[in-house]
Amino acid sequence: MNLNKKQIADLLPHREPMLLIDELKNIKKLHSATGIMNVKKDAFYVDGHFPGQPVLPGVLIVEAFGQAAAALTAHGIDKKEYENKLVFLMSVEKARFRNPVIPDCKLELNIEAIRSHGRVWKYKGEAFVSGKRMADAQWSATIVDKK
User: Fold this and answer.
1) Can you give the residue range of the structural domain that contains 10?
2) Known catalytic residue: 49?
3) Which of 14, 31, 49, 75 is catalytic?
4) Closest CA to 8 of 68, 55, 82, 57
């Protein structure tokens, strides 16, 4: 099963320009998925990072990992468990940026849920462009009530 951008927006509170994931595919319920981020030349960060030689900021790669993981989790659990809730990043571990991600490309984010304990989830992911590993990380997130 695949989710398109509208279906992802139905699961996450993020909106443009911060909704970074365009598609979620290869979904294995509450286990793994591949998030797709179309890194475009007209993206909001291009003019300032870095002028004349744009690069997707590493922090946005981490954010994209987090959004893909949140969509995977929200899609897999009972709607009542995530309704009126937010997923907050708790920690980022072992983040490595191996190659710069240059716009116009498709960033593939292979994510996996490592474990969950109550409302706390731990994930790992690898990011690729055309089969080349660009970044990898592990992170934790928690589901909290909206205030």
Assistant:
1) 3-145
2) yes
3) 49
4) 68
Alpha-carbon distance of 89 to 94, in angstroms, equals: 15
Contact between 70 and 12 under an 8 Å Cβ cutoff? The reply is: yes
pTM of the model: 0.95
The angle subtended at Cα 31 by Cα 26 and Cα 32, nearest 5°, is 35
Mean pLDDT of the chain: 95
Residues 6+ apart with CB under 8 A from 120: 90, 140, 141, 142
In sequence order, the β-bridge partners of residue 116 are: 121
Ordered alpha helix ranges (H), the chain: 5-11, 58-76, 79-82
Number of domains in the chain: 1
CATH number at residue 77: 3.10.129.10
- When pLDDT is averaged across residues 7-23 and rounded to a whole number, the result is 96
Percent of the chain past pLDDT 70, that is, above it, reads 100
